[in-house]
Amino acid sequence: MEKISINDLVNEVISDLPREILIYVAQNLKVDALEKNEIIEYFKNEVSHYSAKVQKKVINCTGTLLHTNLGRSQIDTDYSGESTNIEFDLFNQKRGIRNEFLNELMNLLLNSEDACFVNNNASSLYITLKTLKDEFEINSVIISRGEIIEIGGSYRLPEIIQETGLNMIEIGTTNKTRLKDYQKALENNEKSLILKVHRSNYSIEGFTEDVDIKELRSLADKNDALLLHDIGSGLVISRKFLEKENISIFNSEPTIQESLEDGSDLVMFSGDKLFGSVQSGIIAGNQRIIKKIKDSPLFRTYRCSPFTLYELQETTIKYVSKRELEIPVWKMISLKYEDLYKRAEEISKVIKFDHSIVDDYSIMGGGTMPDKKILSPVIKIDMLSNEHLLKNLILNSLPIIPRTSKEKIVIDLRSTHKKNDEIIKSFFLSQ
């Protein structure tokens, strides 16, 4: 690059990126045919591109409360990153048992015999099935065709089952599976288990039939079979809380406690969906099976970090202590329309572009309850007459991520903390 030196080119930009990264970007530019000023502009554009890749805080104004691309459940953390007593017994001053308090806390919340924690819910299912195959000589998994799911990131249930070495026995049809279908499969396949999977990211309605956990428990007992329930979405909130807050969208959503009470041997769910914590997988239920999972050689490969376990502990404490509104996702779900409207009005006062406050709907997201919506007032801004506004929002020093609809930029405040309103106002004041 003879038209401008690397150092001079790097000095042309103001960036928070390490100088070493800027030099790397400059050295790898393909600019032989460009003039000096063109090289500088091209370099600035590449630096902006790299800056946008850096993981950083963003303000979620999409109205999707569990936005998978934005990290799903939001958390308020006070984790310092310093040393913790994760495996040290402070009382006896010796090596302790990992997760001992969290285990007891989770069992108290779920009314389960035991629990364990892995890095996501796909891991929960895989390590459970693999352990049952290796330790309990299970060779087949019976599952309804209407529950053979795929979720984001190309996670396909049949592929996970195949990786465990178990056979997958499909029963029923997409829309109808009856108790006799399970019975026939159990009769024809010795050493098989029943896996029920909650359809959290899609729904089947109309001419349908399903078998509930209580019926499956009775059948499993008659055939000496295990019953697993992959709920995924992770609803543990009490029905009393939902009634008190006048929240009805979860009326037909199964809770982890209800599944265990109805007879599931094990329940598996995500920590970063409706549970409202960090990415993790939680397995709860039968103590004998959980112990086998914890003793599995695979378990250490899926073991959670101290940060993850700390956040799971803090979230579980809030549930047990009836402080659910301190969990961000439940705070957002519970926000009153009137309070959101007042926030939108305050931001509206500083927006210079054509806009309006209208009624729209927030959604859960994260592969959870796709057919349920929450009424919310939103700010809609004309995008056609402000062609650079969307880019400016997203590339702001603290990115503000809206959604778009019919050539409108939509600012939905239900999915962000009130403390971020001043940042949003400052952005619009600068435009």
Task: Summarize the model shown.
This protein has 431 residues and is an alpha/beta fold. 37% of the residues lie in helices and 19% in strands.
What does this protein structure show overall?
The chain is an alpha/beta fold. Helix content is 37%, strand content 19%. The strands form five sheets. Strands 4-12-11-10-9-5-8 form a seven-stranded mixed beta sheet, sandwiched between helices. The protein has a four-stranded antiparallel beta sheet with strand order 13-14-17-16, with helices on one face. Helix 5 (121-136) packs across helix 11 (287-295). The mean pLDDT is 92.
Question: CATH H-level name of the largest domain... which superfamily?
Answer: Type I PLP-dependent aspartate aminotransferase-like (Major domain)
Number of DSSP-assigned strands: 17
Percent of residues in beta strands?
15-25%
Which CATH class of the largest domain? Answer: Alpha Beta
Molecular shape: globular
In percent, how helical is the residue content? 25-40%
Strand order of the largest sheet: 4-12-11-10-9-5-8
Query: How many domains, as an integer?
Result: 3
- Largest β sheet strand count, sense and barrel closure: 7 strands, mixed
Q: What average pLDDT do the residues reach?
A: 92
Distance between the termini: 37 Å
Global structural class: alpha/beta
> Per CATH, which architecture of the largest domain?
3-Layer(aba) Sandwich
Q: Based on the structure, what is the oligomeric state of the protein chains?
A: single chain
